Amino acid sequence: MSLKRGRILGGVAALAALVVTLAACGSGGDDSGAKTITVGTSGATGVYLPLYVGVQTGIFKKYGLNVKLQTLTPAAVTAAVLSNNINIGWDGPGLVSGIITNPSAKVIFTAGPTVFYLYGKKGLTSINDLKGKSVAVTTPGGAIDGAVRAAITKAGMKPGVDVKVAYLQTNSAALAAVQTGSVAAAGVSPPTSIQADEKGMVNLEDITALAPPSVLAVNDKFAKSNGPTVTKFITAFKAAVKEAGSNAQASGQALKTYVKLTAPAEIDGTYQAYKTVWTVGPYPTDQMDVMLQQFRTATPPVKGVDTVKISSLVDNEYVNAAA
C-alpha cells in the first residue's frame, strides 16, 4: 500500500513552527480555575461532533476542563501534538506514523470509526467499474486513503496500478474533481457524501469498515504533568458522546457552528450517519497490527516500523481509569 509518509514526517518540524502557539497550553487554566487542554482535529467534519457538542453545551466545563479546539490539517495535527503545541490530537494513521518516527506522544484511545463512502460519477455501478480510472482522496496514508485502497484491493484490483489514486487534500476538492470529470470517483465522508447524493453521484460502497478506527494521542510531556486531566478529559468526552448521540438539536447547532453547515439535509444526514458510531475505548490491538503492516509495505516504509512495539505506541492507562 503506497503511504507516502516521507514527505509528511520530514516536514514535522516546519509544520510545528507554523502552528499558532496556544495560550495556557500546559497545565494552565482560565479565570474560572478550569484546567485548560488543547485539542486539534484534522479538519472540521461530523466525526468530531462529540468535541463540538462538549464545548458548546458546557459538558467539559462541568468536569473542570477548559477545552480549546484547533482545526488543522492532518500533517499539522501530527506536528502539533508531537511538539506539544496542542495537547491531544485527533486524526488517523498519520498520527501513529508520526509517533513511530518521533516518539513524543502516545495513542490513548479511539472514538470509533470515521464514516466513509466511495462515490462515483453517473453511469458507474460498482467499484469494478473504476478499473483504468482514478479515485480522489484527501492525503497520502490517511484513513480515507487506506479505506479506498482496501476497497480497490477487495474488488480484485491493485491500487495505483489498476486504479490510480489522486490526493486533493480536502473532501470538497475530491468531490469537485468528480464533477469536473478529472477523476471517476472520490472517497468522502459526511457532509460531503450528502452533497454527492444531491448532485446525483453514485454511492458505490460504504467503506467505513475498511478504515482504521480514529486515533487520539496525547503529548508525553503534557501527560506526564497532567495525568489526571487527561483521564478527566476522556471521562468528559464519554459524556459528550452520549449527549451528541441523543441530542439532535445540540448536534445540529454544533454542525452549524463548527462545520458551517446550513442545509437541513446536510445537517440531519451528517448527524444520522454518526450518532451511533462513536465508541470510546482502548485502541484495538488487531487494528494497530494492520496499520503497522501497512506502514511496512509503504513506499517508502515508515522509518522505525520494523522494530516498534505496540506497547511503545499505546498507553491505555487513561482510558481504563476514565469513568
TrEMBL record:
InterPro entries: SsuA/THI5. Pfam families: NMT1. It is found in: Periplasm. The keyword Signal applies. Its main location: periplasm. Keywords: Signal. Residues 49-246 form the SsuA/THI5-like domain. Belongs to the bacterial solute-binding protein SsuA/TauA family. This is ABC transporter substrate-binding protein.
